[in-house]
Amino acid sequence: MWLQVFVWNLGSSLFVYGLASLLCFIQLQNHKYGRWYFLPILLMGVINPLTVGAVTSAIIAAIYSTAASQMPMLYAMLWGFGITLIGVGFGFLPFLAGL
């Protein structure tokens, strides 16, 4: 059950961060150092689901298992997309830069 949520989270995160890194590369390709800024963006698209996404997927699966409930594939997709959207949303919050 956690694997379904994890795979959807990983896929949607790679899609979102892949588009962002592609846009960054296209816009900054003539800049001396800016052309390499797409690499940290793409790396965050992989690291975030492998760490936070895996733990969150396991917690969601544990809640469903404790409730003795089956998770339909649509719910796994929605949970995976939701975890990605929350992660992207936290990336836009300005209070993280001040911590």
Automatic annotation (TrEMBL):
Q: Which UniProt keywords apply?
A: Membrane, Transmembrane, Transmembrane helix
* Cross-referenced InterPro entries: TMEM170A/B/YPR153W-like (IPR019334)
Keyword Transmembrane helix assigned to the entry: answer is yes
What's the main place this protein lives? membrane
Q: Which Pfam families match?
A: Tmemb_170 (PF10190)
What cellular component terms from Gene Ontology apply here? membrane
What's the domain of life for this entry? Eukaryota
Q: Where in the cell is it found?
A: Membrane
Positions of transmembrane segments: 6-26, 38-64, 76-97
**Topology with regard to the membrane?**
Multi-pass membrane protein
Question: Which family, according to UniProt?
Answer: Belongs to the TMEM170 family.
Designated name of the protein: Uncharacterized protein
